[in-house]
Amino acid sequence: MAIELEKSLFGHCIFAFVLNKDLPESQAQLLQSTLEAHGGTVIRFGEDVDLRVVTHIISQTSDFPEYNQARLQMIPVVKPTWVMQSILKQKEASIRPYTPDPKLIFSDVNLSCADIPIGDKDAIIGAVLAMGGMESSSLMKVTTHICALTIDHPKCQQALEKNLKCKIVLPHWFDDCLKLGKRIDEKPYLLPNPEIFRVNPEANLPFPTNEDIIGASSPHPVNLPLPTDSPVRRLTVFRKRKVMVSQDLQLSSRTRKVIEDLIEGGGGSMTTSVHNADIYVCHWREGRDYVFASRAGIEVGNLSWLYHLITNNEWTSPMRRLLHYPLPKEAISGFRDLRITLSNYGGEARTYLENLITAAGAEFTKSMKPDNTHLITARKNSEKCQAAEEWNIEMVNHLWIEESYAKCEVQKISDPRYTTFPPRTNLGEIIGQTQFDPKVLQTKYFSRDPTPSPGDPKPLKRPVMHEKDRNASSRKSNGDVAMGGRDAEAEKVVEKKKAGRRASSRSSLGQVTTPAPNRRISAGKENDTPSSTGSRSAKEKAVSRLHGLAPDIALYEKEKKRKGPIWGGERAANKVDKERSAERSSSPAQKHEEEAEFSDEEGHNPKRQRVGPPPVEMRLLVTGYKGWLGNALKEDSDKKKMRELGVLVTQEPKLCTHLAAPNLVRTKKFLCALASGPIVISTDFIDTCAKHKKGDFPKAGDFVLKDDAKEKEFGVKLKDVVARAKANKRCLLRRVPIYVTKDIPNGADTYKEIIEANGGTFGIYTGKPTIKKVNPEDDEGPAEPVYLISGQRPDEKKLWPKFVTEAREGNMVPRIVDQEWLLDVALSQQQKWNDRYLVEKK
């Protein structure tokens, strides 16, 4: 009878194995024999898991393609230890303690409490059970942890005498794990001599190694890896899968060919249509292919993820590691103005966090200054931590940046999970465990449009969007205002009134609707007072909105009163006020450009004949054009003619799409505009526009600037320069400190605009202490250079020794150069260096 019961233990079960490095085929074969001996059925190894057939999936990890669908269909996914435990009990063991779900941090813990007070004991047991663990009142062979305050309890003595493989830990370990939501190492909490009590918390700790970020520390892999398996064995991870590689990766033909050969050699195939793909590899979270693939359930990852699959020949979800998923094109909400630095992270963990900060849209700084906004640290012990407390800089652990990136918005640092720093633990050991939530990504980047039912109200009319606006709005979640929110919509209404058009009635804050079609407006009564009902409704809505904004207003006023050299509080409030004041007092030329842009793209009634210039198709910045020198009438006439052709002449280098010059020059305008990567054309284009009639638009591509003589003189190729500028995105000199002398030839402002246009840090050096000292703990590589652009005047030469001394004391390499260095760097769009730029050698 017992034998029959044993053989029927798994009689109704059909098992599938997920093979990986933690569960190799040899171990799976042993388990298969055990399962079949107890009546179970095992499907063949190497086959995709057919969820229509299996009743149980045995896996050491949740990282396999069918996991989420298995959860939806309530198919148990268990670790191999579940099999042995079921056999010991002669019945199927509970599923929860043996699940590989990473959220259940105590899934392998079998707890027994010793001398713990009753209230704390109940809390610890409840937490362990909720997080996937088990508890027993007596000591058993399967017990993995004993929670105790001392080793004097009989349970602890019994475990030591019998040499049981269980750990005796302080309750502090459970407390810290729950605060972090992650399972940290028990070693500092082990009795009889817990490290947290006998070692100074500030004593040195080695940087921990972490396998979770290996191959996932950068979204931009440098080298194409080779499979770690034997060369004889082909890749199997792409078997029966069709892969599409997006053009936005900008791969060379050689690299693309190598990738294709590896995939096709392993039984996969390549495709150029996302509709036929099983895997879509791209760099940005945007575009029709990305949206379609994400909505269709196709696996979407970036090049780093693809290389990781090739290297390990083992499947992993692109949402398992944060930098394996395509990057956001725009900064994540709340990160644009943040300056973040790191402390107590080393090796690949540090590289991973640097790339994560940049991917979120914040600025990473190697050293810390008072204008830093956040310090991310693995321990609350370093010079940076002390400075952060003195300067009121927010200090958090890496979970804050990871979860902010995963949830696509900055998280509140008031959450204690982000400010917990267990003693004698370097939190680098739990780095890289945060994963994406598919629902958050769907809401933010590829939300599905709900299908309206016949009874639903008709959608509100919205301004016509051009192609670029459609692309932008596709990345926003439902409810976002596509044109910049409440302030932008209010300004549009004001502009419409100025133009003589009646403002549309508002149905909600930040959304403009057209009047009802049956509404009649009498001629000559433009100033009619709205009805009392409409006025009352508008007032009620305004009051309700103010109530909703009251907490934000109170928080703003509170932050505005904060003092100290920090980013935030009074400094941030004053900065915002100054920016708004500057916007209100902008120059007439700039207002004209804004009005022109608005009138071209917004508020157009298709039933009304267009009055005014056509839409702006080109924003042109002109430099060095002799045809307008001393001839204001011709300049105005040419600008009007070009505006009628859709060309707007702008003075803003950041806004221009095209740059016109007679030849390759190094003027301030040319170098500032070049940093944006515009199309550089000849000023012959202006003459051609002046001769052409309205509607006959000349092609800018026919006027691309060619100047072989100047290219040879300056040692550049204009085509390559523009390509590098587009790739640099105005960040060529990012985090490069550049100073100029007060009386530099051509004026300090000239160099300031060129430096800041390329993302550099500008300052005027007068001999007073200016250069900020770099923290020695961050000097993992060679010292970085700091530049002083100077002339040869005696009063400038007096500053050189002070600059050299101050730079070296700040652990930086001093370089005193003439203006040729900056001009060459800005023109070539490369950070080049040669000793010939040094003024001392001239």
Brief overview:
The chain contains 29 helices and 26 strands. The chain has a four-stranded parallel β-sheet with strand order 2-1-3-4. Strands 6-5-7-8 form a four-stranded parallel β-sheet.
List the helices and strands and how they pair.
Layout: H1 2-7, E1 14-17, H2 25-37, E2 41-42, E3 56-58, H3 67-72, E4 77-78, H4 81-89, E5 110-113, H5 118-130, E6 134-135, E7 145-147, H6 154-161, E8 167-169, H7 171-180, H8 195-198, E9 242-245, H9 253-265, E10 269-270, E11 279-281, H10 288-295, E12 299-301, H11 303-312, E13 339-343, H12 347-360, E14 363-364, E15 374-377, H13 383-391, E16 394-396, H14 398-406, H15 438-445, H16 467-474, H17 486-498, E17 506-508, E18 511-512, H18 532-560, H19 569-584, H20 588-601, E19 618-622, H21 632-644, E20 647-649, E21 658-661, H22 668-674, E22 679-682, H23 684-691, H24 708-714, H25 718-728, E23 737-741, H26 748-757, E24 761-765, E25 785-789, H27 794-797, H28 800-809, E26 813-817, H29 819-828
Helix pairs in contact: 5-7, 12-14, 18-19, 21-23, 22-26
Structure description:
Helices cover 36% and strands 11% of the residues. The protein has 842 residues and is of the alpha/beta class. Helix 21 (632-644) links the parallel strand 19 and strand 20. The model is unreliable at 450-536, 562-610 and 774-780 (pLDDT under 50).
Described by strand count, sense and barrel closure, the largest sheet is: 4 strands, parallel
CATH C-level of the largest domain? Alpha Beta
β-strand amount? 5-15%
Record field, number of beta strands: 26
- Order of strands across the biggest sheet? 2-1-3-4
Q: Counting H and I runs of at least 4 residues, what is the number of helices?
A: 29
Q: How many domain units?
A: 6
Question: Which whole number gives the mean pLDDT?
Answer: 79
Low-confidence stretches: 450-536, 562-610, 774-780
Principal-axes geometry comes out as globular
Q: Architecture of the largest domain, according to CATH?
A: 3-Layer(aba) Sandwich
CATH superfamily of the largest domain: BRCT domain
First-to-last CA distance: 101 Å
Rg measurement, Å: 33 Å
Structural class: alpha/beta
Estimate percent helicity.
25-40%
CATH topology of the largest domain: Rossmann fold
